[in-house]
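subagent[fold] <- orchestrator: predict structure for attached chain, return tokens only, no commentary.
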Amino acid sequence: MKKILIGAIVGGIILFIVQMLAWTVLNLHQPAYQYTPKQDTVLAALNGLEEGGYIVPGLPADATMDQHDALMKDMEGKPYATVQYHKAYKMHMVSSIVKGLVVNIIIVLLFALIVSGFAAVRFGNVLLAALF
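subagent[fold] -> orchestrator:
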């Protein structure tokens, strides 16, 4: 069990470093956070929404299946947007970093526990389990 815990901590740190590189140096997530010169117009239009995620155009929660089908047909080939709206920006970098590291350690710990239960620990089995 001691080996699994040490492996989980080391693996969690490695996973954390890979994620940090993806967000900073490699900038792999840039397409999800692009700049638009229309940002002030967009924010002004969104002002007053409740916090949460939206898809535009969308339907109210009580829409019928026929309304959903009609919207899907009408929207085929047309533009749409998904929006995550927050009323105020709050920088919590340290807590986000700590949470991310703890989650990574837990992920690797659970994976190590699963792999340790294999009857035959071979590279192919471990790789397949990791992919799943």
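orchestrator: received. Logging for downstream: Helices lie at 2-23, 39-46, 65-75, 93-116, 123-131. Strands lie at 52-56, 81-85.
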